[in-house]
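We were asked to recover a plausible sequence for a given structure. The inputs and outputs are reproduced exactly as logged, with field labels preserved.

PROBLEM: sequence recovery
POSITIONS: 558
GIVEN STRUCTURE:
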């Protein structure tokens, strides 16, 4: 009796075939015809944008992934499950890949026709056997969509400065681009010989598609205005797509402002590339949600805030480790709900054993202790900024990036982005999915004898973005026995978040309130029950200081 190959063997077959073909020479020396290696390239890796790469990869990758899933879910009949999975996966992967191939080809023609500055990046999903079995070997990635950026060029702006109205030439080429995303165009491309079943399959696939229009700017000027204007522009292009046959319920838009650069903002050319409208199409809602969760900012292209000083000159040769003035604490006894702001009365601490260095000075800045500022002491090791590793993950050209230009919070500035909205009703895409532990909880630490609290700390899974502005409260010269009734500092600061390989950086901008410039907190990967560490940067008597800050979660009784 014959048996279907084990899923691991399918992996070996596909990988071996790929490697073997890639190692071959370009032509057969005897016949002069394309060798197996060249055939492989033309089939799966052709440089021609009108080649059927995605269709062919989709058939192979879809079949492999389908086979693995079929084998996993088929119960006792593994052979039948694998065969069914191979057939269904291959058909679906081929259909999606073929549609991506055709659109990429047509976009290349439009780019040439209008002499556009256009960047096309395939969006791929890569499955591993870890999704369906215990092994973790990566499989051939499969295209599930495209990211298409149309960039401003000298003399041919898409929008006039400060305007959200498309220029006449831009209106023409965006309309032609939009038609490539319409169902009518795809059905027409099938030709008169297509069967009704083929037309129905294409129609069903298109109903699942999601198209996201994203407006981007460089980092010049107000980050708030950048986000607002980029949203207006993205919505204008989304409306144009609707008018050219794309279903309204499939269209989404977002004003990303300066937050997702693709080039260095320190150069004129880089800033020009960052001023763009991006079209992201994805094969279904599941992949759409995965895309929102895994995209991240390339912080290597950020530049320091223009208004930032260079406090390193004040640091002298001090490179020692800052020491916090915090005293040891007793367990908390809190009865408020997790969604309610926490005050000093909710946190029970033992009094400091020694006199705290905290005093209010004439300039009304708070003395938290610590050491004079230097960048080494003030920075946290976030690691590379990148998407968290997932079994199913999106592959893009953007690689992990470092944060050297904004390594300390005083070099950064709040960077505002708009919500992803549906064109139908202009309502934000609702999400309540937060990173573990970061869903409205309160955190505190005693720094230099002062109680520092952060309430309503919430971070979404989608892009590890802050869900709201937290509530920052500082109770100076905090005395547990008296429990200060009113905070001396109370504000809702702006926040940036960065997902690094060493954890999530939560960056708070206090904008000089009571001398506090900003603060960084680092949560470990996959857990937010305790912090790895943090820093507060503040000014006192015309000098900048940095002090350790390691807040703890306020325990809440249910």
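RECOVERED SEQUENCE:
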């Amino acid at each position: 009796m014959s048996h279907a190959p084990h899923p691991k063997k399918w992996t070996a077959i596909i990988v071996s075939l790929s490697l073997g073909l890639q190692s071959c020479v370009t032509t057969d020396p005897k016949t002069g015809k394309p060798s197996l290696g060249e055939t492989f390239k033309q089939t799966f890796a052709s440089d021609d944008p009108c080649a059927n790469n995605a269709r062919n990869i989709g058939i192979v990758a879809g079949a492999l992934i389908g086979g693995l899933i079929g084998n996993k879910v088929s119960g006792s009949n593994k052979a039948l499950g694998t065969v069914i999975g191979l057939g269904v996966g291959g058909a679906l992967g081929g259909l999606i890949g073929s549609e991506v191939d055709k659109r990429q080809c047509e976009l290349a023609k439009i780019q040439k026709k209008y002499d556009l500055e256009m960047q096309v990046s395939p969006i791929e999903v890569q499955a591993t056997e870890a999704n369906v079995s215990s092994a973790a070997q990566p499989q051939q990635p499969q295209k599930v969509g495209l990211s298409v950026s149309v960039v401003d060029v000298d003399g041919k702006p898409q929008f006039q400065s400060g305007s959200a109205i498309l220029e006449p030439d831009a209106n023409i080429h965006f309309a032609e681009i939009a038609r490539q995303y319409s169902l009518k165009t795809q059905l027409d491309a099938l030709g008169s010989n297509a069967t009704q079943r083929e037309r129905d399959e294409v129609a069903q696939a298109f109903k699942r598609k999601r198209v996201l229009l994203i407006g981007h700017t460089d980092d010049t000027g107000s980050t708030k205005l950048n986000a607002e204007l980029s949203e207006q522009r993205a919505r204008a292009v989304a409306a144009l797509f609707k008018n050219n046959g794309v279903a309204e319920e499939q269209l989404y838009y977002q004003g990303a402002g300066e937050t997702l650069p693709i080039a260095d903002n320190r150069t004129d050319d880089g800033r020009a590339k960052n001023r763009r409208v991006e079209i992201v199409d994805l094969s279904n809602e599941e992949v759409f949600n995965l895309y929102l969760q895994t995209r991240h900012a390339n912080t290597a292209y950020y530049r320091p805030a223009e208004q930032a000083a260079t406090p390193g000159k004040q640091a002298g040769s001090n490179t020692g480790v800052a020491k916090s003035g915090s005293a040891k604490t007793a367990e908390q006894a809190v009865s408020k709900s997790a969604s309610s702001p926490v005050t000093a009365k909710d946190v029970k601490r033992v009094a400091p054993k020694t006199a705290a260095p905290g005093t209010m000075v004439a300039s009304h800045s708070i003395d938290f202790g610590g050491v004079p500022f230097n960048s080494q002491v003030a920075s946290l090791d976030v690691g590379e900024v990148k998407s968290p590793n997932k079994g199913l993950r999106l592959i893009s050209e953007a690689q992990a990036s470092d944060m050297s230009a904004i390594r300390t919070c005083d070099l950064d500035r709040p960077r505002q982005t708009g919500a992803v909205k549906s064109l139908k009703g202009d309502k934000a895409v609702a999400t309540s999915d937060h990173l573990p532990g970061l869903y409205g909880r309160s955190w505190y630490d005693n720094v230099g004898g002062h109680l520092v609290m952060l309430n309503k700390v919430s971070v979404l899974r989608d892009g590890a973005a802050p869900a709201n502005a937290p509530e920052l409260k500082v109770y100076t010269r905090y005395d547990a026995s008296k429990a200060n009734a009113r905070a001396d500092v109370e504000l809702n600061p702006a926040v940036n978040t960065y997902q690094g390989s060493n954890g999530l950086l939560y960056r708070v901008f206090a904008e000089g309130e009571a001398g506090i410039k900003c603060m960084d907190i680092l949560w470990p990967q996959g857990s937010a029950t305790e912090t790895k560490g943090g820093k507060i940067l503040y000014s006192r008597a015309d000098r900048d200081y940095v002090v350790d800050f390691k807040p703890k979660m306020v325990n809440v009784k249910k």
